[in-house]
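If it is no trouble, can you show me the amino acids of a protein and the tokens describing how it folds?
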Amino acid sequence: MKKNSLFKLSNHFILFLIINLLFIFSPYSILSQQNSSETFAKITFFSGNGKVIKTKVNKEYNLELNQLIDKDDTIQTFKESKVEITIIEKGTVITIYENSKLSISNILNQYNDKTTLINLFYGKIKLIVSKLTGKEEFIVNTPTGIASVRGTEFEVAASDLGDSLIKVNEGKVEVFDDDEKYSIYTNENESTYIEFSKKPTKVDDPLIKDTDNFLNYKNIYSAQIAKIRLKLIFTFLNNLDKNLKLIEKRIDEIYNNKFFQKIIELRREGKMLGSIELGYLQTFRNILSQINYLSFKNIYKAKILYELINNLISKAELTEKEKNEYIKSLKNFNNNIQRIFTKLLIINKYLE
């Protein structure tokens, strides 16, 4: 078989895994139990060309004015295009610039309040975030880090290599590395750079302080170092796999608990729960809300990394052996996600 054919087969398989992760294991079924509306935002302006990928029905649509955006939908723009979407409930405005791709959603956090998630795969966005209340959260995920805000105006750029830049125009943004071990506050007129395996750092260099300059500078070298970056990203993916296995351990602990088994038995027999079982039911529900939140955060990180891996493989010069190794790792990771989310769905069903 020719080298080009091998590349196409490998790339198609990776695309299959991405679709499998985004669609089949989309957290829709669990989110529906949290009684929140699927319609999330709408397109209030667009110019040029782009598309909306409806995850729930696995279909693509051209951009339209006032088009409704549901949870986990993906918006992609092409050259010389721009889209503005407005989150219906809060009025937060997100501008998506050319050659960009993101998905948006919201879930319940560990405080049972809303967390809005913006997952930027690549490109540039500007956000004007309305002031949050209570324990609400607004988070932007990029391949290398996380930006958390409570009401501000800022820009986020993610290069083809996964490096990210946060530029604050008004207010303040807390920027985390991908593992959320380190954070730094970025104030008005400041920029913070996030690189793989490094702490977020503020930058003054005009070459990368501006989001447009940052993307132009970083994307020039993407092809040359794509192969090196792939190895680093798979290290991140392995760490993510470890996080998910820890979550799986917590799921198993609930499922194997004798009181949980008693609740299952009583519900299968159509019997009322006693006071003891009701107390444990509430305890299990509280623990599960934390597990759901952590699971969703990790799966959204995986979605971003899958997209980045696909982009880098298209640029890197890989041998057949290297491609097969990457495909094997992705397949194993995908199988782990399937197993964990199957367990999570079962637990959620019994604790409704």
